[in-house]
Amino acid sequence: RLAMLFWNVNNFLISENHHMSKTIKVALAGAGAFGIKHLDGIKNIDGVEVVSLISRELEKTKEVAAKYGIGHVTTNLEDSLALPEVDAVILCTPTQMHAAQSIACLKAGKHVQVEIPLADSWRDAESVVSLAKQKGLVAMCGHTRRFNPSHQYVHNKVKAGEFNIQQMDVQTYFFRRTNMNALGQARSWTDHLLWHHAAHTVDLFAYQAGSPIVKANAVQGPIHPTLGIAMDMSIQLKAANGAICTLSLSFNNDGPLGTYFRYIGDNATYLARYDDLFTGKEEQIDVSKVAVSMNGIELQDREFFSAIKEGREPNSSVAQVLPCYKVLHELELQLNAA
Predict the structure, then answer these.
(1) pLDDT, position 322
(2) Per-residue model confidence as pLDDT tens digits over 167-209
(3) Phi/psi-derived region of residue 95, left when phi > 0, alpha when psi is between -120 and 50, beta in every other case
(4) How many alpha carbons lie under 13 Å from residue 94 in its C-beta half-sphere?
(5) Which value, in Å, is the radius of gyration of the alpha carbons in the chain?
(6) Alpha helix (H) ranges present in 115-215?
(7) Virtual CA dihedral for 128, 129, 130, 135, nearest 10 degrees?
(8) Is 258 exposed, middle or buried (0-12, 13-18, 19+ CB in 10 A)?
(9) How much is the pLDDT for 73?
(10) Could you give the C-alpha distances from 141 to 112, 303, 315, 323, in angstroms and in order?
(11) Cα 196–chain centre separation
């Protein structure tokens, strides 16, 4: 009997270990500029294989799939969700589809990582979070700034009690007078300053300050006649602990592109440009040892897959980022009333 018990325990342990070490099979939706960043990141991660690629244009999708050795290609997410071997899905699709597709993945029993933003409405964001909770699956949103080594360095300083943020000053500037993606190709959808680009900073501010946002104001410039969105916006935030944030956003900026962060603290100033970090006097800080990679997207994907393997909530889970979407919702109401 004892031998039988040992045999059962041993077999259980073997099967558990086997389960932990099995390759995670992934479907990736959206083979555009961002989807390719994920494919490049995943190449560096052991125990993960992209088995299905979904995108709108079949021929282009086949080309990308061939380059990355992906066997299954489709233009329909449902086809990939029907594959029993698919464990997890990464969504790099247009903003307007994020919430509905995240819900479809969770209903199909798949773990999901959706690129920022989680949704373009508060109601949709809430729906994703409640379903993820109900299903007990890993559901994560690509708030990449939490993972960039430059921002992780500042986060570690705050956590260690060595730095307190007094103000964050952030400029998010693009030149998008026509509707182009990061590769300079025409977009099939319209990007959004508030629900997409502001989401990065609204979440990062609360995360870095370690304090919820209690006050938020916004003003916007004229609405673009054909794109139907504001091309310029200014946002002010205040956290419960007194830290403040000023965020300027533009699609009209014909100059250096991307986002530039200035952290003003009680004893230091840090300037962050994507994965690079500088002191307030422009001296570069070595952030190469902060994490296993210098690539924020790869680090984000590593967190997603680790959370699946370890059966835990990931950093940047949909539940953790939900307060950010509440703030965006309130800002939208404010802008619409103005």
Answers:
(1) 98
(2) 999 999 988 766 565 556 655 545 678 998 999 999 999 999 9
(3) alpha
(4) 13
(5) 21
(6) 122-135, 149-159, 199-209
(7) 80
(8) exposed
(9) 98
(10) 8, 11, 9, 13
(11) 10
Measured CA to CA, the distance from residue 221 to residue 219 in angstroms comes to: 7
First-to-last CA distance in the chain?
76
Nearest to 117 by CA among 91, 141, 93: 141
Task: Kindly list the distances between the CA atom of residue 262 and the CA atoms of 128, 151, 205, 216, 297, in Å, as whole numbers in the listed order.
Answer: 32, 11, 11, 19, 21
pLDDT of residue 183: 58
Peptide bond into 225 cis (omega under 30): no
Instruction: Say what percent of the chain tops pLDDT 90.
Output: 80
Q: For 22, left (φ over 0), alpha (ψ -120 to 50), or beta?
A: beta
76 vs 24, 61, 177, 188, CA distance in Å? 21, 12, 31, 16
**Angle formed by the axes of helices 318-337 and 199-209, nearest 10°:** 120
317: its two tokens: 């889970």
Alpha carbon separation from 331 to 94, 99, 116, 247, 276 (Å, rounded):
22, 20, 18, 13, 30
* Average pLDDT value for the chain: 91
Number of Cβ within 10 Å of residue 323's Cβ equals 16
Residue 326: HSE in the Cβ half-sphere, 13 Å Cα cutoff: 13
Asked whether 278 and 284 are in contact (CB, 8 A), the reply is: yes
Helix (H, G, I), strand (E, B) or coil at 81: helix
**Please, which residues have CB within 8 angstroms of residue 186's CB and are 6 or more apart in sequence?**
178, 179, 180
Three-state secondary-structure class, residue 238: strand
Which tokens go with 285? 């800080």
